[in-house]
Structure formats: C-alpha cells, structure tokens
Description:
This protein is of the alpha/beta class. The protein has two domains: 2-143 and 314-347, Alpha-Beta Complex (Quinone Oxidoreductase, Chain A, domain 1); 150-286, 3-Layer(aba) Sandwich (Rossmann fold). It has helices at 39-48, 93-96, 138-142, 144-157, 172-183, 196-204, 218-225, 241-246, 271-279, 298-309, 327-335, and strands at 2-8, 11-16, 27-36, 55-56, 60-68, 80-83, 86-87, 107-108, 121-125, 129-131, 164-168, 188-193, 209-212, 231-236, 251-259, 283-286, 318-323, 343-347. The strands form four sheets. Strands 3, 5, 6, 9, 10, 17 and 18 form a seven-stranded mixed β-sheet that branches. It has a six-stranded parallel β-sheet with strand order 13-12-11-14-15-16, with helices on both faces. α6 (196-204) links the parallel β12 and β13. α4 (144-157) crosses α5. This is Galactitol-1-phosphate 5-dehydrogenase. Its cofactor is Zn(2+). It holds the Pfam family ADH_zinc_N. One of its GO terms (molecular function) is zinc ion binding.
Amino acid sequence: MKAARFYDVRDLKIxxxxxxxxxxxxDVIVKVKVAGICGSDISKYSKTGPHIPGEVFGHxxxxxxxxxxxxxxxxxxxxxxxxxxxxxxxxxxxxxQGLFSxxxxxxxxxxxxxxxxxxxxxxxxxxxxxxxxxxxxYETAAGIxxxxxxxxxxxxxxxxxxxxxxxxxxxxxxxxxxxxxxIFGATKVIAIDVFDEKLKIAKExxxxxxxxxKEVDIIEKVRQMTxxxxxDVAIESAGTPLTSAQxxxxxxxxxxxxxxxxxxxxxxxxxxxxxxxxxxxxxxxGTWFGNSYPFPGREWTSAIYYMKKGELKISPFVTHxxxxxxxxxxxxxxxxxDIFFGKIMVNINNN
Length: 351
C-alpha cells in the first residue's frame, strides 16, 4: 500500500509498504477514506520529528472496514467508521476510573505505538471504532476526533447556559470550541485571533463578537464588553506564550480558565496576569485528548449527534483537499508559511 513515511524533521516520503494484517482477535483493518492534518502533525514535521524513523504518522481519519478479527462483533466488513486514535492501557489507576484521557501509559496511533492514517490502510482495535450513521460523510467523519478534543474541553470547562465565553485562537480546535460553546448554552461567545480570515469563519460558525488582537488591547476590549466584569469562561486554544498569559486576565472573579492549546515553547507569565489566579480566585484547568467512559466516550457519541443535527460543522473551515502524494509538498508549504490554511483534508481512498 502507499503510505507517508516520516524519517526526520522535514523528511517525509511517499513509499510502498505492506498492508497491515490481522494479528489479534479484536483487530480490524480499515481502508482510509479521508485523513485530516492536526496541528500536532505540523509541529512534529517541523520541530520534534518522528519517534521512530520511517514511521507512518497521522491520527484524524475515517474509512471503511475491510477485514475483522474472529472476536469482533460490534463492526463488520463494509461498515463506514469513525476512528478514535487514542490507545489507553485500560489497566492503570486512571483507566480503571474511566479517565482514559489521563491514562498513565497513553499512546496514539501514528507514534511509536501503531501505524498512522497517512496511508491507504490502518490496523486498529475494534473498540476504537464507531459505526457512522447515514448522513455523515467521510470528510465530516475525519473531523470527529478533533471535535471530541474540543468537546472534552467543554465538559472540563463546565460551561453553563447563559455563560459568556472568550476563545483565544480560532484555528480548527478554536472553531470547534465556538460551536461546542453554543451547544452547551453559552449566550455570548467572543472569538479572538490576529487573522481576519480566521475571524470571518469564526463569525460564520457562531461567534457573537470577533476581536483582532493586533488592532486592540483584547483584555480592555473584553472588559468593556462585559460591564468591566470579565467573561465566565476563557479558553486558550492558540498555544502561544502571549495568549497563554493573556487568558488569565479575561475571566470575571471566580471565573474559569481552560488551557486547550499546546505551547511548543516556554511560557513566561508576568505578575499582572499570574496574580489574577489568586486575586480573582480563578479555576484553572487543562484538557487533553477526547475520551471518557465508556470508551471512547460521550464526546464521540455527542459529536456524531450534533453533526447529524447540523450544529457541529467541519466543511466551513476546510481550506485544502489534497491527495496522499501531495502530503510532503503541503507540509513544506506550511513550514515555510507559504499558504493560509484552516483544516487540510487528505483524500486517500475517497474517489
């Protein structure tokens, strides 16, 4: 089969490798239809490199089941599926409590644990698959995993009906957080970014107010919009050192901060922002992966439900649809910042 093999930073090659085979009774072979490029894939390509030279990475995808192990009962050959890429151990103390996103030995396909989805076929356990209902296409289904990442964060933030929510960073996760915030009942959602192109999409997906951080002092602007009180929940989804500090100054007294963006450099927080945790008695939370009990979790069933209702959308922020052969070129363009992009979808067997 054709696969994208990752050898080193900025060294990605399309090569032929063997199609994976059934090894365990609960193994399933999935023919990949559509795969999405995650922000972590971009950082991996440009900065951190592979865990094992020659690995096949990528973890956001949908596809068709073509072969199942002897003990597989929940899925059959021919089923269209969404794929959860998380690989909890199911044995540690966190897993025994159903807290799979906190697994002490958590893995993900596309790293050293298992081959990823930038390939024509993937082998994975049947417990990681959810059969797709009619009405959800493969591209939308490839967006379920990042939707669950955002949804898990919403459950962590405990957003309530009537809340005002500020979201810093309107990349794919930020745009999904905007939609989830509305689903959870937020009355006012404030989207903050430095790119007008992204803010335009944020507005289309439900943001009530859009603020360009290059043009105004976002902290003062949010204060003005909230009667000088601040928002109920502020979410950092850009993963920059600047926004990781600013987010602490956006909530009201007793409000909540959720860190959803992954910073790939050190974060230095000034006293003026850090003291807000103490003086305003903030609740500060992190969020990781998108799983809960029963695995893969309520995030997955909820995402599919709201996608069917049309309240959780992927296509409005898909900016590129490419083939597997074009993958090395698009990663290099991203690295060189030669393109503006939102979500990039790779059509692999989706002709």
